[in-house]
Design a protein that fits this description.
Helices cover 42% and strands 13% of the residues. With 204 residues, it is α/β, with parallel strands linked by helices. The strands form two sheets. It has a five-stranded mixed β-sheet with strand order 4-3-5-6-7.
């Protein structure tokens, strides 16, 4: 099919198809939209992509995306440093922030434990979590991984093998399953996330 298009257009469609949730038809529509858009718009899009790749990286403390050494959440003195919310990906952090209810800090694992994919504790940011807890001051850890098999496995591993052996005094909670089983936090509405946060349960 790609041979029907001019080579640069075929290449653009091919690259757009690699984006999550973008199939061949959507890639084609996006490519044609870019072609019809003013040149300044196309240049702005290309520049934004190059800029984000060059200047956005992980926060040295929590693992969130930032263009600074430390992200705005970690550097905010108004945040409650005694509560640490653990999420799998930066997008889950942004989902929690949209609730406007949580005022603690975060720790982004940048993945979940998934033996089927060859991902174990050493492939996600567990060592960094251990270091943060060792520094002291944390009284509660909220495990806010997605309610999937991998998310639940990761939460259980962290609770039983990482956090609890380090300190019996730290309260370990799991967001309530107002989140649908197998769901994705990034797609949850604000009310669902607030409910899941409010009714989080303690992990034993």
């Amino acid at each position: 099919m790609a041979q029907q298009y001019a080579k640069p257009l075929a290449q653009l469609i091919s690259e757009l198809e690699k984006l999550p949730g973008v199939g061949p038809k959507s890639a084609q529509r996006l490519a044609f939209h870019i072609l019809r858009a003013p040149e300044a718009n196309a240049n702005a899009l290309a520049s934004a992509i190059l800029d984000v790749r060059a200047n956005v990286h992980f926060c040295t403390i929590c693992g969130n995306y930032t263009d600074q050494t430390v992200c705005g959440i970690c550097s905010d003195p108004r945040r409650d440093r005694s509560i640490l919310c653990i999420v799998a990906e930066p997008r889950d952090l942004f989902a929690m922030e949209r609730t406007n209810e949580y005022r603690g800090l975060y720790h982004v694992l940048q993945g979940v434990i998934s033996p089927m994919d060859g991902i174990g504790p050493d492939q996600i940011r567990v060592k960094e979590l251990v270091q943060r807890i060792k520094e002291g001051g944390v009284s509660e850890v909220i495990l806010a991984t997605n309610p999937t098999v991998e998310g639940d496995t990761t939460a259980m591993y962290l609770a039983q093998n990482v956090i609890r052996p380090m300190s019996e005094s730290i309260r370990i909670t799991r967001i309530a399953h107002g989140m649908p089983i197998g769901g994705d936090m990034d797609y949850a509405d604000q009310a669902t996330l607030i409910s899941a946060l409010e009714w989080r349960r303690e992990m034993r």
